[in-house]
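RECORD TYPE: inverse folding
INPUT: structure tokens
STRUCTURE:
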């Protein structure tokens, strides 16, 4: 049996044992499983640094102006927390879309990198997300991780070793230079990522691009250019998407009104909030939330 088949069987078994609900946030911290029996409308969410493995089917994810397509035996890698929209494009009742999402542990990546006898040289490519082919070693790590869900008592003992091996396989594989950049990177990239984190953490506040540029050690023009090269969005677009996704979450979880949530996420004008919300999600806040709640 191939490692891909082993991974697929483990994902199917995990869903069967835990109520078949998707997404399934498992007992393993940082491991989630996804399943869809049909093509889906775009799902807007804030992506954390992770390895998004397609076990069966196909999907696309858009970050700003970049669209990444990935399918069975491929994975999308995200290195910086940022907003995006994803859609399943191949999923059917007899062959559902299946995916395993494994969050990347930067501390373990760094520890493994520093322990390697000949660590890869960090790449200069600045894209914060890319698609990679998966080899047998990486698929094997994912299969063992998902299989541990059937042995809850073994998770704390065995999963740390699986996670460490996965980090090694990523660093030692064909894309090792990109993962090395995530660990060390150039000083410019490190400070740029710090600025992105600052914008993410202060999404509801008025943030000056000049201040973010100073944090990154760049001129405003260079910061704007390099921010867009990494995220495929301008700083304003990035902040706007974070605000709107957080607003949607608050309306769903706290039943807040559109006007109240507009001020909560940093808008000065509820009407502007409603216009931009409809532009991103395809419907005004009340109609969109009503549809989500009745689904």
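DESIGNED SEQUENCE:
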């Amino acid at each position: 049996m191939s490692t891909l088949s082993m991974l697929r069987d483990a994902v199917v078994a995990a869903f069967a044992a835990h109520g078949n609900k998707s997404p399934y946030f498992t007992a393993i911290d940082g491991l989630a499983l996804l399943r869809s029996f049909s093509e889906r409308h775009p799902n807007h969410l804030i992506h954390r640094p992770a390895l998004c493995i397609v076990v069966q089917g196909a999907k696309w994810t858009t970050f700003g102006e970049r669209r990444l397509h990935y399918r069975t035996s491929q994975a999308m890698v995200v290195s910086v927390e940022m907003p995006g929209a994803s859609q399943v494009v191949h999923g059917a009742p007899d062959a559902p879309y299946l995916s395993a999402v494994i969050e990347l542990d930067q501390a373990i990546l760094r520890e493994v990198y520093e322990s390697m006898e000949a660590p890869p040289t960090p790449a200069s490519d600045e894209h914060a997300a890319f698609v990679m082919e998966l080899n047998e070693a990486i698929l094997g790590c994912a299969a063992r991780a998902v299989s541990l869900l059937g042995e809850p008592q073994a998770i704390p003992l065995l999963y740390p070793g699986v996670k460490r091996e996965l980090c090694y396989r990523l660093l030692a594989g064909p894309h090792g230079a990109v993962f090395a950049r995530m660990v060390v990177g150039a000083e410019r990239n490190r400070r740029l990522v710090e600025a992105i984190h600052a914008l993410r953490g202060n999404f509801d506040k008025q943030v000056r691009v000049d201040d973010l540029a100073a944090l990154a050690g760049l001129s405003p023009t260079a910061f704007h250019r390099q921010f867009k090269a990494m995220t495929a969005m301008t700083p304003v677009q990035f902040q706007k998407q974070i605000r709107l996704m957080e607003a949607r979450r608050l309306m769903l979880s706290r039943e807040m009104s559109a006007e109240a949530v507009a001020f909560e996420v940093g808008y000065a004008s509820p009407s502007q909030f409603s216009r931009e919300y409809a532009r991103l999600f395809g419907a005004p806040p009340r109609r969109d939330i009503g549809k989500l709640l009745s689904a």
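NOTES: The mean pLDDT is 91.
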